[in-house]
Design brief:
By secondary structure, this protein is an alpha+beta fold. The chain is about 45% helix and about 20% strand.
Length: about 425
RNA sequence: AGAGGAGUGGCGGAGUGGUCGAACGCGGCGGUCUUGAAAACCGUUGUACCGCGAGGUACCGGGGGUUCGAAUCCCUCCUCCUCUGCCA
């Protein structure tokens, strides 16, 4: 959520940023916000004045009562009736204005960072780094949706039976490889100084608003109706919300957490031929890294997180490229996002396996996540997160890129974790 | 899930209709004393909003209500504790 004070101060810069996202007329909504804010202030001033007067009279009444002057007290009481009705009226006006203002602010995405490239389509994303020699497989190469059947390690039909499409069942070495990857990712993050968290995988509404999944992506989350909970689409949500309404001290920073969770996404309307097999699922596993950083350091932290993810891909020996997402492709709440994609030699396409983002104060403002600086001022922090990593496409790439006649070699770093070297 | 009890500032803990943003203790910060530290003593110590400022307003788990006035009374939801039930 954008800060009104920031909109007032940097209106032009913010409008430019919103144009970069391809918004039609951000001027309109920004003007509405500023007008409402003016109304809010006026109403608040009036309300406070009314309440102050009414409080004063109440105090007088109290004094008179104590002195036993009941008639005088009764006489003054009558004066308050009017204040009371106008106070109620103003109170209602104020909460109406505030909720309209909030609804409006919820509709405005984060302002892209200066380094975010112009553009609206995937082709406009800037490739910052790309593996030079892409692997080429023999003509007998198979996509992972065939390989998993050949080796009987992931079963979509069983998932269909038990749940439905997009909920695969991992079997035998498939399950063990999953577990190996999760443990490998967790251990690597812990080595890099991240403290492990095992959060709940269902969250309440407040948490959904805190990190920005609500109200923007309401339809993308599974909703537990009888409890009004949501299944998490990513561990980012529960882990970041650990710090909702928290004031940290400077010494606590940066906060670094890692968590493994299953993730649930309805992916309404996003199915097609290009998302076969493991490429898109309703339930998948992911290890997520989250940091809370000082505003002055958050872009350093972003680079550090990016390099952590790059390190994982290198250790897994997967060909990757790094994208700087363009304005049109940037997520609603992010200021800058690096996507990491892995090349699948069998599908002959790039698969997104990680998104590393800086949200600056956008989430922190919703979360009321602040720190107390030396000068005793409370200031919003910056939140960041990244997948390190999402499992299914990593799994797909490992299976596809390492396939050979009669077996699939798994990366050496996983041998110990998996307990086998080949499928 | 049922019955009973409880939720107050960083923590502990008073307060059951007005003088309460809230006693007191601990902790934190500043100071006195000390070569330094400890102890002792003195002072200070929440957040947000409105206002140029003086100052004002709101917040005692959340929301709503009664009242001139609510931490205090009523309703409702949430959370925790105890007992019973059920269960990995």
């Amino acid at each position: 959520m954008l800060l009104i004070a920031d909109i007032l101060e940097n209106k032009e810069r913010i409008l430019q940023g919103l144009h970069k996202r391809g918004l039609d007329s951000p001027e309109e909504v920004i003007e509405k916000v500023l007008n409402l804010d003016t109304q809010r202030k006026e109403t608040k001033t009036n309300l406070d004045r009314t309440l102050a007067e009414s409080n004063g009279i109440s105090k007088q009444i109290g004094q008179l009562m104590r002195q036993g002057e009941h008639e005088k007290a009764e006489a003054i009481k009558k004066k308050t009736a009017e204040l009371r009705t106008s106070g109620k009226e103003l109170q209602h006006q104020l909460s109406d204005i505030e909720s309209t203002l909030k609804t409006l602010l919820y509709q405005i995405p984060n302002v892209p960072h200066q380094r975010v490239p112009e553009g609206s389509r995937a082709e406009d994303n800037a490739v910052l780094e790309e593996c030079e020699r892409l692997p080429v497989l023999s003509d007998s190469k198979k996509p992972h949706w065939d390989l998993i059947k050949d080796y009987d390690i992931i079963d979509f039909d069983l998932g269909n039976k038990v749940t439905g499409a997009g909920f695969p069942v991992y079997k035998g070495k498939g399950a063990r490889l999953q577990r190996a990857l999760i443990n490998f990712f967790l251990d690597e993050a812990i080595k890099a100084g991240y403290a492990e968290i095992q959060p709940p995988i269902v969250i309440n509404e407040a948490s959904g608003y805190g990190t920005g999944q609500l109200p923007d992506k309401e339809g993308q989350m599974y909703h537990v109706q009888n409890e009004d909970f949501y299944l998490i689409p990513t561990a980012e949500v529960p882990i970041t919300n650990l710090y909702r309404e928290v004031i940290l001290s400077e010494a606590d920073l940066p906060v670094k957490h890692v968590g493994y969770t299953p993730c649930f996404r309805r992916e309404a309307g996003s199915w097609g031929a290009h998302v076969r097999g493991l490429n898109r699922l309703h339930q998948f596993d992911k290890v997520e890294i989250v940091q809370i950083a000082l505003p002055s350091r958050s872009y350093e932290v972003l680079e550090e997180m990016l390099q952590h993810v790059v390190g994982l891909l290198k250790k897994l020996d997967l060909p990757y490229r790094i994208l700087n997402l363009c304005g049109g492709d940037l997520g609603f709440t992010a200021a800058l996002t690096y996507d990491l994609e892995v090349y699948s030699a069998a599908q002959e396409q790039w698969l997104e396996v990680s998104s590393v983002s800086n949200f600056e104060t956008y989430q922190a403002n919703r979360l009321k996540l602040r720190y107390k600086s030396e000068g005793k001022k409370t200031t919003l922090l910056h939140t960041l997160n990244g997948s390190a990593l999402a499992l299914p496409r990593i799994m797909a790439a490992i299976l596809e890129n390492n396939q050979k006649e009669g077996g699939i070699k798994i990366p050496e770093v996983l041998w110990e974790y998996a307990g086998f070297k080949e499928i």
